[in-house]
Design brief:
Oligomer: heterodimer
CATH architecture of the largest domain in chain B: 3-Layer(aba) Sandwich
Low-confidence stretches of chain B: none
Structural class of chain A: alpha/beta
Structural class of chain B: alpha+beta
CATH topology of the largest domain in chain A: Rossmann fold
Radius of gyration of chain A: 28 Å
Largest interface: A-B, 14 and 10 residues
Order of helices and strands of chain B: HHHHEHHEEEEH
CATH class of the largest domain in chain A: Alpha Beta
Low-confidence stretches of chain A: none
Number of helices of chain A: 24
Mean pLDDT of chain A: 95
Number of domains of chain A: 5
Helix content of chain B: 40-55%
CATH class of the largest domain in chain B: Alpha Beta
Distance between the termini of chain A: 71 Å
Number of strands of chain B: 5
Radius of gyration of chain B: 17 Å
Chain lengths: 762, 157
């Protein structure tokens, strides 16, 4: 610790910290533009100049380490004069168009000009103008406003993992720009909007929608992945206008993925369901709640009388709140059925009997940054878990060994210590090789290297991603990962897929006594099926099969926020429910963190929070225990006792490795990031930002053996279903694999994510 | 994109730095690329960046920072005349006027036959021998007089 004096205050600060760190810790504010606590020090804006005793000139506080006995003055006449001078320079080329600037009201330049600038400028000459750049549909640029702090450049280099912005030219001709004509494509690009201290980079979807001081701020939790990122929803007149991160060092730090930031556009989609609807004689018509609920309840009861309770079932999206999932399973169990599940994209449920708790990350999110060695199994990491990828990238930068066992080899923007890129069918076998190496055997190839990396370091983990969890041999992968983790002293963890991938287990929304799981129900739907927020064409392992199963059911009651075309085809009653922004609720994140949130805006039209709809449904079905007054009451019943004891990744019984036989070509069906759930599928800006996702990708050898070339239209088919897609070449894919991402309308007609696929010229 | 001779030269530059610091060779690589191509088109810059395994924008930053890199096509011979104070005292202005008259172009222009481009530069560190110019960045001609300029131009085919 060093003892220093700042503005007359005696401070004791850790060695190696900078003057600006010391000031921040002591609550002394030093103005700054280029300095950001999560980025490297650039010291190019000169706004943080302070006077240090015995130093001949003023020093930048962000780049000056503290020294024993240092005396710093941040508000001395010399320092104030320097701040005024820097501020005057800063504004020489700034357009001062604050009245039409979206940053107005939350602009660092504006605030510091008021606090530290002088009243006027002596500059009389012409100001320079910098042409705007088109860097994609998410970020709007006004480059004349740029003050060249280079925060956006450093963000790309240090946090995003790829440098997409740069500063070209020199001196007065400097410009911040991406490479000629390139759009910014990082899944974290929106953070540059937050980092930009001026109005040069602002949100394009939010452009000219509101002034910052008109917005109502509501604290909430992001629903699009399992991290539980803390967000703030900004709304005006009952409409969500933007989402920004809420800082939480233990979860999302100060970052937010583009998916969590821009998906809000889907909340105002044109096909939002505003009134209940029922289908009679194949004609849909709107009706009131009373009528719709009576219709649903009578039909449910009649079918239960006729076919028995085992012909009643319910499926929910893992994006539903704990309260909703709890009440849904309560309705089911009240009716005497155990058929309830939320694991819509899982295909192998054979480990269920061996589960001893809810599968979770196996550690706190913050611990991911401190891992020494990690094996990732089956994950499209940057797409599915952008902020966990960021943490692993930081860990890798500090020497962590990251190994990957995957059918995909998309660039993770971090160094990989070892990797095995194999077809989905070969994943379990390769993982078994790693297990055998750790047990003392010798095998050739990548497994040896992966195992060697796992044997080093103190803090280790084996993490199973979404692809592993959707995999037809999930239970085998789980069993093997468990053995590997045990053999090398690593923690076993699951990268939860959706907001409540853990919460669904805790709420009991899965079969407990021999009921049907999601796989069984989506193969052969119960005669009466309730859907909670489910869109079968995008949310399930096998959309074609799910659609057919639901169409064959006698009654489908869909609680949905959207009037999606597939629900119009398969459902009989549509009940409008509120998405996360319009209801109070709770998500349990992948690290087991329980986070409740309040509604940011009122439900649209006649939509109602789903927990209220399920409460009424329970009462109308004359079931006991549905007299809750608030969602908090439901939550307290649903989550009694400590959460931590209910989390457990260890299987009681291990599943042995089975021999798999597979057809000629296997599909690699990752879920594309911006088609992962119903809300984000309707977020227009995100959709245009990654429009090219609907390709069938395969390696060059497979392309030529099929007599195809890049860019031609091909027909891919699985079972009855087929789709026409463009062929694309990706030489990083393993042999005999066709990568067709799931979730979008273009691939909704296809079958299982990792099943056999046929390819022919269209 | 670049000839194998150029790539061999770039490899030689890369070898001067530790294996993980290929980026350090970016200035030499851009220079070598410019010698071959005459100027640095965006595709050339992107190629060099890919070759050095760095983002294209990182190479572009360098190419735009230094003014000996040409970002637009230039003539076969780029004549760069120093116009800083010592050269001006030694008559750089009349050298410039003579060149402009003779070639019929101003600064940053190229003759219609695509042979000559005229550029102005800052000090080249040989003030004792001014006025002076460089030819394509690599050859310097000093103590210029109209007669010497005629001789130089005649020697450039």
């Amino acid at each position: 610790m060093a003892n220093i004096e700042m503005d007359g205050k005696a401070l004791s600060v850790p060695d190696g910290s900078t003057v600006i760190d010391a000031a921040d810790a002591a609550g002394i504010y030093i103005p700054r533009f280029c300095y950001h606590k999560k980025l490297s020090v650039a010291a190019n804006c000169r706004m943080c100049l302070v006077e240090v005793e015995k130093a001949p000139k003023l020093l930048p506080a962000c780049a000056t380490p503290v020294m024993e006995g240092m005396k710093v003055q941040t508000r001395s006449p010399k320092a104030l004069a320097a701040q005024k001078a820097v501020m005057e320079f800063m504004l020489i080329n700034h357009p001062l168009d604050c009245p039409i600037c979206d940053q107005g009201g939350e602009c660092q330049l504006q605030d510091l000009a008021v606090g530290y600038g002088k009243g006027g400028s002596r500059y009389q000459e012409e100001k320079r103008v910098v042409l705007n750049k088109n860097i994609g549909p998410l970020i709007s640029t006004d480059m004349t406003r740029c003050i060249h702090c280079t925060r956006c450049v450093r963000f790309g280099q240090e946090i995003g993992g790829i440098m997409e912005m740069g500063q070209i030219g020199r001196g007065e001709h400097s410009e911040i720009t991406p490479f000629l004509g390139h759009a910014v494509s990082s899944e974290l690009s929106g953070n540059m909007i937050d980092l930009c201290p001026v109005g040069a980079l602002t949100s394009k979807p939010f452009r000219y929608k509101a002034r910052s001081w008109e917005l109502k701020h509501t604290a909430s939790v992001a629903p699009h992945d399992s991290l539980g990122s803390n967000i703030e929803i900004h709304s005006k007149n009952g409409t969500v206008l933007r989402v920004v991160p809420r800082e939480n060092e233990e979860i999302n730090q100060c970052w937010l993925s583009d998916r969590d930031r821009f998906a809000y556009e889907g909340l105002a989609a044109k096909d939002r369901l505003r009134r209940p609807m029922i289908k009679q004689n194949d004609v849909w018509r709107e009706c009131d709640w009373q009528y719709a609920l009576d219709f649903a309840v009578h039909a449910l009861q009649a079918l239960k009388e006729k076919h028995g309770a085992q012909q009643v079932g319910a499926l929910a999206t893992p994006q539903a709140t704990v309260e909703e999932l709890f009440l849904l399973q309560k309705v089911m169990r009240g009716m005497g059925s155990d058929n309830v599940d939320f694991r819509l994209r899982q295909s192998d449920f054979s480990a269920d009997a061996g589960l001893q708790g809810a599968p979770w990350l196996g550690m706190a999110v913050a611990e991911v940054s401190k891992l020494d060695s990690v094996l990732l199994v089956g994950t499209n990491l940057r797409a599915d878990h952008p902020l966990l990828a960021l943490r692993l990238r930081q860990a890798a930068k500090h020497g962590a060994r990251v190994s990957l066992l995957n059918p995909l080899d998309d660039d993770l923007f971090m160094p990989l210590a070892a990797k095995a890129i194999v077809s989905p069918a070969a994943m379990a076998e390769t993982l078994d090789q790693v297990r055998r190496v750790l047990a003392g055997e010798t095998v050739s190839g990548d497994a040896q290297k992966i195992a060697a990396n796992l044997q080093q370091g103190e803090s280790k983990a084996v993490l199973l991603g979404n692809l592993a969890q959707h995999h037809p041999q999930f239970s085998e992968l789980h069993s093997l990962a468990q053995q590997i983790a045990a053999a090398c002293g690593a923690k076993l963890g699951f990268l939860g897929e959706s907001a409540n991938s853990v919460g669904g287990y805790l709420a009991g929304a899965l079969p407990a006594a021999g009921g049907l799981n999601a796989g069984a129900m989506l193969n052969n739907a119960p005669k009466a099926t309730i859907l909670l927020g489910v869109e079968p064409e995008g949310d399930t392992y096998n959309p074609a099969q799910a659609m057919a199963a639901l169409r064959s059911a006698d009654l489908v009651v869909a609680l949905s926020a959207y009037k999606s075309p597939t629900l119009l085809k398969s459902a009989d009653v549509l009940l409008p429910i509120a998405p996360f922004s319009e209801t109070s609720g709770t998500f349990v994140s992948t690290e087991g963190r329980v986070q409740s949130f309040a509604a940011a805006v009122k439900p649209l039209g006649e939509a109602r929070p789903a927990w209220k709809v399920l409460r009424v449904l329970g009462n109308l079905l004359a079931l006991d225990g549905f007299d809750y007054d608030s969602s908090e009451q439901v939550r307290d019943v649903a989550l009694t006792g400590a959460v931590s004891v209910k989390l457990n990744n260890t299987l009681k019984t291990l599943k042995p490795l089975s021999k798999v036989t597979h057809g000629a070509l296997q599909r690699v069906g990752d879920v594309s990031a911006y088609h992962a759930d119903a809300i984000v599928r309707r977020a227009t800006s995100l959709q245009t930002s990654h429009a090219a996702a609907n390709n069938a990708r395969m390696n060059g050898a497979l392309l030529s053996s099929l007599g195809l070339c890049e860019g031609v239209l091909i027909k891919v088919s699985q079972g009855e279903g087929s789709a026409e897609l463009k062929a694309a070449r990706d030489d990083k894919l393993p042999d005999a694999c066709v990568r067709v991402a799931a979730g979008s309308a273009a691939t909704a007609t296809l079958g299982g994510l990792f099943d056999e696929i046929k390819v022919e010229r269209a | 994109m670049l000839s194998s001779e150029s790539l061999i030269q770039i490899d030689r530059e890369v070898a001067k730095y530790p294996p993980n610091n290929k980026q350090s060779a970016v200035m030499s690589a851009l220079r070598i690329a410019q010698i071959e191509k005459g100027w640095l088109a965006p595709e050339t810059i992107e190629f060099v960046a890919t070759y050095l395994e760095i983002p294209a924008i990182a190479a572009w930053e360098v190419a735009t920072f230094y003014n000996m890199y040409e970002l637009k096509p230039v003539g076969k011979y780029k004549l760069t005349v120093c116009t800083n104070l010592p050269c001006s005292l030694m008559g750089a202005q009349s050298v410039v006027e003579y060149l402009q008259d003779k070639l019929g172009i101003g600064f940053n222009e190229t003759t219609s036959d695509g042979k000559f481009t005229l550029k102005m530069s800052e000090c080249m560190g040989s003030c004792g021998e001014g006025p002076l110019l460089t030819i394509n960045n690599h050859k310097m001609r000093v103590q210029l007089t109209p007669a010497k300029i005629d001789e130089i131009l005649a020697g450039l085919e």
